[in-house]
């Protein structure tokens, strides 16, 4: 009898453990479903459709659009400069006699993903009735004109309205009601006229910034002018930094403070349910050949990109400031990190073919490198 009692006790114990285990599993499954639903709700609130929104980062997944190399591509360029009515002479290198054409024949190949080829008509259909604005300096102009040409080549018979003014220019594709705006403001922060002269105010964005509001897509850029020196070239006489007024200061420090003010303006004024925000990244120059191991050279006469995926001259300090400011913001801002891939294109500048008689190793020929910037913008918007 003792043995039977023990066996019965063991059977009852096993039965109780099985019931409890099943209840635990059911409870865990129920919790998992609630957590999953909560995550879906959070993702939808953050970006819609389960897509992550970025904050100073380059990609939503393992695909890094900006790590890769340049490869020869016979299908390039996207358009013929002679048939695009939007290109300024300073970017129209072929018009002003650049003899080589190979610089037009390179496409960017990321290491970890495929870049979709730009489709101007698809872009117009997706952004029908929308407003896109580039805000910044002449590198923004470079990118704005490039996008206009790329779209125009896809729909050459579509009527357009093109208005070139200062500070606000626009290009409208009438059939699709899509307008590309350009707002020229090289420092993003204000330059105000005071009794003492022109003052670059690192803590203020008021002049014209209302024009940036209520856009569907904003692409900002700044840095080029922060390196200018001399009152004529830089466009200001004094810098206001809080309560301090000075004739000059460390330009990286000034850029950091000015860009921080811009970030605060974005956080306070941009509705992310309506507007997607990009920062164009730092566009490099090629005046010092020692950066790519040709000490006596500039961009003049360069006919090929650098091979590989790293630039011998290293990263730019201004790019680190951009990343740091974007990471500190509440608003998700996508970093269009074009710096390294552009550093590799020592061959893509106007050099002496910009029509003004000088050597330009700051801007870029059109067609040319800014077309790749726009293709990567197109890819990022599609992800």
From TrEMBL:
| Domain Trichome birefringence-like C-terminal stretches | 115-379
Q: Which residues form the signal peptide?
A: 1-28
Entry-linked InterPro entries: TBL, TBL_C, TBL_N
Cite the Trichome birefringence-like N-terminal domain residue spans from the record. Answer: 62-113
- Assigned GO CC terms: Golgi apparatus; membrane
Q: Which UniProt keywords apply?
A: Membrane, Signal, Signal-anchor, Transmembrane, Transmembrane helix
For this entry, the protein name equals: PC-Esterase
Q: Which organism is it from?
A: Arabidopsis suecica
Question: What does the organism's lineage look like at the top?
Answer: Eukaryota, Viridiplantae, Streptophyta, Embryophyta, Tracheophyta
């Amino acid at each position: 009898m003792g043995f039977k009692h023990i066996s019965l006790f063991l059977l009852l114990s096993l039965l109780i453990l099985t019931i409890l285990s099943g209840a635990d599993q059911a409870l865990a499954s129920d919790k998992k479903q609630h957590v999953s639903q909560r995550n879906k709700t959070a993702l939808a609130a953050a970006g819609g459709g389960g897509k992550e929104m970025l904050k100073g980062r380059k990609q939503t997944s393992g695909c890094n659009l900006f790590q890769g190399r340049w490869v020869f591509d016979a299908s390039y360029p996207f358009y013929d400069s002679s048939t695009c009515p939007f290109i300024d002479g300073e970017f129209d290198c072929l018009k002003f006699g650049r003899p080589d054409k190979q610089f037009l024949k390179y496409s960017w190949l990321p290491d970890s993903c495929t870049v979709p080829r730009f489709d101007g008509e698809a872009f117009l259909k997706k952004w029908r009735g929308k407003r896109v604005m580039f805000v910044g300096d002449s590198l923004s102009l470079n990118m704005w004109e490039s996008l206009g040409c790329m779209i125009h080549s896809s729909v050459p018979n579509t009527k357009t309205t093109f208005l070139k003014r200062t500070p606000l220019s626009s290009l409208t594709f009438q059939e699709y009601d899509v307008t590309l705006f350009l707002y020229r403001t090289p420092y993003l922060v204000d330059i105000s006229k005071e009794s003492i002269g022109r003052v670059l105010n690192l803590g203020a964005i008021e002049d014209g910034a209302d024009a940036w509001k209520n856009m569907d897509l904003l692409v900002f850029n700044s840095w080029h002018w922060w390196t200018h020196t001399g009152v004529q070239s830089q466009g200001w006489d004094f810098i206001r930094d809080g309560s301090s007024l000075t004739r000059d200061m460390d330009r990286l420090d000034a850029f950091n403070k000015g860009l921080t003010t811009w970030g605060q303006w974005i956080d306070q004024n941009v509705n992310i349910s309506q507007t997607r925000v990009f920062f164009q990244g730092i566009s490099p120059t090629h005046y010092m050949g020692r950066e790519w191991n040709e000490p006596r050279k500039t961009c003049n006469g360069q006919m090929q990109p650098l091979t590989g995926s790293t630039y011998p001259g290293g990263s730019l300090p201004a790019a680190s400031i951009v990343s740091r400011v974007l990471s500190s913001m509440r608003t998700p801002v996508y970093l269009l990190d074009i710096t390294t891939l552009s550093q590799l294109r020592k061959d893509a500048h106007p050099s002496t073919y910009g029509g003004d008689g000088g050597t330009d190793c700051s801007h870029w020929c059109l067609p040319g490198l800014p077309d790749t910037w726009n293709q990567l913008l197109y890819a990022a918007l599609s992800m």
